[in-house]
Write a structure and sequence with these properties.
Elements lengths: L3 H4 E4 L3 H4 L6 E6 L5 H12 L3 E9 L3 E4 L2 E4 L3 E8 L7 H4 L3
Antiparallel strand pairs: 1-2, 2-6, 3-6, 4-5
């Protein structure tokens, strides 16, 4: 069984993801092997909220050039977590406004 801190790697703080916070949608980078059930359980355990829905997607690494060397950044997995209407918001994201 995985630990919640191993599943949720970091929150994604972008203009687009922060626009969805009032709708109780939060975006996280998660472990590549994590399932939707794993992500929902980890968010409920870490932030003490109720999860209604989880959408996951695999993100391809972008091409990067450093001098004459070219390579790709790592692929990663993103999860958009929607909370229930009666759930409290995640306090970490409230301080971003």
């Amino acid at each position: 069984m995985k630990i919640a801190q191993d599943i949720i790697i970091r929150p994604i703080i972008t203009e687009e993801s922060m626009a969805e916070v009032p709708e109780k949608k939060y975006t996280f980078e998660v472990a590549k092997s994590a399932t939707k059930i794993d992500v929902a359980g980890a968010v409920e355990k870490l932030f003490d909220v109720k999860v209604a829905k989880v959408n996951t997607m695999n993100v391809k690494g972008h091409k990067r050039t450093y001098g004459r060397y070219t390579g790709y950044k790592s692929d990663w997995k993103k999860a958009i977590v929607t909370l229930t209407e009666d759930s409290k918001p995640i306090e970490f994201f409230d301080g971003m406004f």
